[in-house]
Amino acid sequence: MNNGFHSFEEFITHYRSTLRKLFREPQNHKVVSLNRGVPPMLMRDVIQCRPLNVFISRDHGGYGGDVSQCLSMLEASSYESLPLSLMMGINGALFIQPVTRYANESVASGILPRFANEQAMGGLMITEPGYGSDALHMQTSYKVHGDGYQLEGTKHWAGLTGWADYWLLTARQKKKDGSLARDIDFFIHDSRNPGVEVEEYFDNLGLYMLPYGRNRINTHIPESFRLQPPSTGIKLMLDMLHRSRLQFPGMAMGFLHRIADDTLAHVTSRNVGGKSLFHYDQVKERIVRIQSWFTSCAAMCRYTSEKAPISRDLSMEDVPANAIKSVVTDMMQDAAQSFLQLVGAKGYRLDHMAGRGIIDSRPFQIFEGSNDILYQQITESVIKKMKKSGFTSLYAYLKDYELTSKASEYLRSLTDFSVDQTLSQRKQVIMGKMLGYAITMNMVIQLGERGFQKNLVQNTLDVLSADIQKMLSAMNVTAATEPAESIGSDGDWFAFV
Ligand SMILES: Cc1cc2nc3c(=O)[nH]c(=O)nc-3n(C[C@H](O)[C@H](O)[C@H](O)COP(=O)(O)OP(=O)(O)OC[C@H]3O[C@@H](n4cnc5c(N)ncnc54)[C@H](O)[C@@H]3O)c2cc1C
Predict the structure, then answer these.
(1) Nearest CA to ligand 1 atom 19
(2) Both 86 and 159 in a single domain?
């Protein structure tokens, strides 16, 4: 079967132990912490396990693409290395899964077996220097040309820049009058062909394993290499991005588990003031929060495993996808901050998991939808649904909504108010985060009902409801302040001494 493994279970056991050996070997650990790129021998040993086969259907030589197996592989990767897990996530969610769902079958059968058998890599180019969050206005364009399409434009920040064997390129059609169509189309570029040229490599702050940069696109794509959207390309893009966002908990899971394990090991062995750190109340508070983020993420993994099979169109799943992505990435950053706080100075070394974790997890809050924007979109979407179904009380809506019905009882006294339909953007962001936490709470309750470790579930529900309470009061007291347009000479404290 797959590289000698008879089953997924055999693969994942071997993969975990291989990564453990590779990433904890002192020389490798130093090299991957301090240098850019991946040592070729380490990459060879990782790739020989054929981790990407979890994303690939049986027809094309993989394990079948079961989403819980995909999450499990991402989790095993991020327990040892978050950048490695992102590398796998990019290949899976941003290339293999969209190609599986939308490519011409004969094209897919020429490409996907190369991922299964020849260790090919693929990524996605959406972002442009002038258009990031505003990607729908991208300027990369295409025209019908000969037996295909001619694409032209500039893309930057695509993970695996200069490395991927295949790219999904996005562009808008150039109309006869020179203007660009509203819809976005997706094209598969084979890097054996010219036309995607790296103009500059970036010195990215973290995620050293992954190359980023700016690419000039001027390439011809055969007609059959354009993805076939079910209706519009924007719908395809929503399905792809929601699927990817729903799988973020896979990458977060191992990362949070490792932080929980290593923090506990540190605080129980480090003595300060004659007792171990574990005995200080504030330390316990931080550990409980880290464990709560671990538990929340586990609950999200269960949700995604059941609700996001590769066969399902996820283009309408904006609320759970945006909530899961933004909440879990905020939790990753918060856990890394607490880990470094508790480890102290030792954690500030570039080769320590704590400091690295802060830097490596930070962009997860920015890419695939900036969290500020996703939180706002959650609120907009919920307010729209409330209006449509005639609810004014937030509690009544949460009780009726399948993503929050179980959590609503915990939040009854906090949420029994009518929602102002004209909230400022900053309040929409706070409310979106609050709703994201309520959705997470619901998932945690469901995980608890399945028998997940009771004390973790109870602590998590307590932490989430206390945070929701803080967010609701922040929403009430947030003032509509306007920033100063500049800081003048009367803003110099020294003049007032
Ligand atoms: C490590 C990393 C990996 C990446 N990987 C990829 C990849 O593989 N493929 C790819 O195509 N792209 C990738 N990106 C690009 C990423 O998707 C974009 O950076 C992201 O979409 C934001 O775009 P921008 O950087 O242009 O920021 P901008 O769009 O300029 O936004 C910057 C900030 O402004 C604020 N903001 C923007 N719009 C609003 C608004 N409407 N309301 C309120 N606030 C707003 C938000 O705080 C936002 O974070 C990656 C980026 C990074 C850092």
Answers:
(1) 367
(2) no
Scanning 247-391, the segments in alpha helix (DSSP H) are: 248-269, 281-307, 318-343, 353-361, 371-389
Ligand 1 centroid – CA 129 distance (Å): 10
pLDDT digits (tens, 9 = 90+) for 340-388: 999 999 999 999 999 999 999 999 999 999 999 999 999 999 999 999 9
d(CA 105, CA 467): 48
> Per the structure block, which two tokens stand in for 284?
């316990």
Mutate to test the pocket of ligand 1, among 82, 88, 95, 127 (most ligand atoms within 8 A of CB): 127
For the chain, the 3-state helix, strand and coil shares in percent, each to the nearest 5, are 60, 10, 30
What does the DSSP assignment read for 390-436? T--BHHHHHHHSTTTTTGGGTTHHHH-SBPPTT--HHHHHHHHHHHH
Q: How far apart are CA 184 and CA 151, in angstroms?
A: 12
pTM for the model stands at 0.97
Tell me the CB-side half-sphere exposure of residue 276, using CA atoms within 13 A. 10
- One domain for residues 199 and 268: no
C-alpha 205 to ligand 1 mean position (Å): 15
pLDDT digits (tens, 9 = 90+) for 282-322: 999 999 999 999 999 999 999 999 999 999 999 999 999 99
The separation between the first and the last C-alpha atoms of the chain, rounded to the nearest angstrom, is: 77
Which residues have any ligand 1 atom within 6 Å of their CB? 90, 123-127, 132-134, 157-159, 207, 363, 366-368, 370, 372-373
Closest ligand 1 atom to residue 371 Cα is 49
- Cα(369) to centroid of ligand 1, in Å? 7
Return the CATH number at 250.
1.20.140.10
Sign of the Cα torsion 227, 249, 330, 84 reads negative
Q: Look up the domain containing 341 and give its range.
A: 237-477
Amino acid at site 458? Q
Contacts of 361 (CB under 8 A, 6+ apart): 82, 255, 329, 332, 333, 336
